[in-house]
Structure to design on (551 residues):
């Protein structure tokens, strides 16, 4: 685990960690909720790894345990059995090198703080000096296109802008791994495309590994290097699909590529269990 | 939602309209008071009844007793009881409420007794408080604090229990320690409910301030009112009642000002929520 009180310098895909060590790995993770009588299996047996610098999407129908999976990856929930490792260390709590963007920005942003202070909060908690904090906040807000919104409150912004704030806050402390739980599910289609391109750009800029959970197969194929398909009850990995579409990707040309349609069809078949 | 509603909620239309209607709204709030005052003034003007003194003499007594005269000491002593008792109630209420929120076992063990004490009408504790603490400053402050602590304590507990799990998950993700998240997330998130509790506590504290001075006391506004009434000084009695009404109003006004300042984000967010489709 990395030092707690210091924000690490920017990490690129090549210079951090022992070569070949996955950022996260799940080994036979099983998660059961509830007591003996009414227990519910959320995850049956999940095994996969995500390499440094990779963009992995997890797709599955609702009820497949996607959110449970993400909470396990974040260290917010412990597996009933099996192992969840972050940079080789078992996850017992949320390590400082992980950022999370939740689906509902309205619930994860703190309405009593301005946008800038929301983004500043993880830096303040980590004891980053004041001058550096201000600079860092300005930088990361500029990266998500909100350079002028620092003094506003989150609730004064549109939904898409609020989710940008949440993204900025999770990038401010330069995590190695960014986890996103259906982050664009509650914004309109146009904003969604903008945010998809935004996340591809900042991922490059910050050199961060991303695990992105979604139920939208088009979104998964468009964003990912690899798509992990999980099936509904029992939550198991049905297939891991490498997406070799060219980068940089573009909403119009990438989606018009015949290979895109092929991936889409294949994954849809997996998710719909045909 | 129609475009009319939206223009009403934001934009220059609202400000202009508010400016136009501000005097009208002030008038709406004030006219009844003026009418009642005038009616009371003239109705009581020629009164020779001992029990229904003219308003003019009451106001004269208000000035000569409470502003320039000897009753100022009663006023300051009452306000001192109120302030000390209320501050203790607020701090203890928030502190114990937070403690019970964080220690589930303690909460489960104590909650039946908390509600038992909460529903007990505090004035009945005056004799017990006198037995334990005499009739001085301590007794009054203890009584005020004891009665006023419950609304704040229970609202703090409820407010903290109602904090959104996503906000707590976020605090962990951002790297806060459990104690850090209490101060940075749980307290602010529960603040609207805590403040509502503090407001109820203030009302209770004012009531107990007077009650504690009625029964056994040698000073305070309540003592003054009872003494005046027993000495057939009905002008003095009425002047004391008006002083109490003024204290209640001013205390409430100060509270609302502080609340609007501390919770401006809460009201702002709620107003925005109301305008979204």
């Amino acid at each position: 685990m990395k030092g707690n009180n210091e924000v690490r310098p920017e990490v690129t895909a090549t210079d951090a960690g022992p070569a070949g060590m996955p950022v996260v790995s799940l080994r036979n993770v099983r998660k059961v909720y509830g007591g003996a009588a009414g227990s519910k299996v959320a995850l049956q047996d999940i095994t996969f790894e995500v390499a440094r610098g990779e963009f992995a999407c997890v797709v599955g129908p609702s009820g497949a345990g996607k959110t449970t999976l993400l909470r396990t990856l974040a260290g917010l929930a412990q597996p009933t059995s099996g192992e969840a490792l972050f940079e080789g260390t078992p996850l017992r709590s949320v390590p400082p090198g992980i950022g999370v963007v939740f689906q509902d920005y309205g619930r994860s942003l703190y309405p009593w703080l301005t946008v800038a202070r929301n983004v500043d909060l993880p830096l303040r908690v980590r004891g980053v000096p004041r001058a550096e904090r201000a600079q860092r906040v300005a930088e990361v807000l500029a990266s998500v296109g909100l350079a002028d919104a620092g003094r506003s409150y989150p609730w004064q912004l549109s939904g898409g802008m609020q989710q940008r704030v949440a993204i900025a806050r999770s990038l401010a402390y330069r995590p190695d791994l960014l986890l996103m739980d259906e982050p664009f599910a509650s914004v309109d289609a146009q904003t969604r495309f903008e945010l998809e391109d935004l996340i591809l750009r900042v991922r490059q800029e910050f050199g961060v590994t991303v695990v992105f959970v979604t139920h939208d197969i088009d979104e998964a194929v468009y964003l990912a290097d690899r798509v992990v398909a999980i099936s509904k009850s029992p939550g198991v990995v049905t297939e891991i699909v490498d997406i070799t579409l060219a980068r940089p990707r573009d909403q119009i040309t990438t989606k018009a590529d015949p290979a895109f349609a092929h991936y889409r069809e294949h994954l849809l078949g997996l998710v719909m269990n045909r | 939602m129609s475009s009319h509603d939206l223009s009403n909620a934001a934009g220059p239309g609202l400000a202009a309209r508010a400016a136009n209607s501000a005097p009208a709204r002030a008038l709406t709030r004030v006219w009844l008071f003026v009418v009642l005052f005038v009616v009371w003034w003239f109705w009581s003007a020629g009164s020779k009844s001992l029990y229904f003194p003219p308003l003019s003499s009451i106001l004269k007594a208000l000035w000569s007793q409470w502003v320039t005269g000897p009753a100022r000491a009663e006023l300051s002593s009452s306000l001192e009881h109120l302030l000390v008792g209320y501050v203790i109630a607020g701090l203890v209420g928030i502190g114990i409420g937070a403690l019970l929120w964080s220690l589930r076992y303690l909460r489960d063990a104590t909650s039946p007794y908390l509600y038992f004490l909460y529903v007990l009408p505090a004035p009945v504790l005056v004799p017990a408080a006198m037995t334990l603490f005499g009739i001085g400053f301590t007794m009054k402050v203890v009584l005020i604090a004891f009665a006023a602590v419950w609304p704040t304590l229970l609202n703090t507990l409820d407010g903290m229990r109602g904090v959104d799990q996503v906000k707590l998950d976020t605090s962990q993700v951002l790297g806060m320690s459990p104690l850090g998240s209490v101060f940075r997330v749980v307290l602010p998130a529960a603040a609207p409910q805590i403040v509502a509790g503090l407001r109820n506590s203030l009302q209770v504290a004012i009531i107990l301030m007077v009650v504690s001075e009625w029964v056994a006391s040698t000073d305070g506004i309540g003592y003054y009112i009872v003494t005046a009434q027993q000495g057939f000084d009905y002008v003095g009695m009425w002047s004391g009642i008006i002083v109490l009404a003024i204290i209640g109003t001013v205390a409430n006004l100060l509270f609302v000002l502080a609340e609007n300042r501390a919770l401006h984000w809460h009201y702002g967010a709620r107003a925005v929520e109301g305008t979204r489709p």
Notes: The first strand of chain A starts at residue 24 and ends at 33. Strands of chain A lie at 24-33, 40-50, 55-59, 81-86, 89-90, 98-101, 177-181, 209-214, 226-230, 237-242. The longest helix of chain A spans residues 189-206.
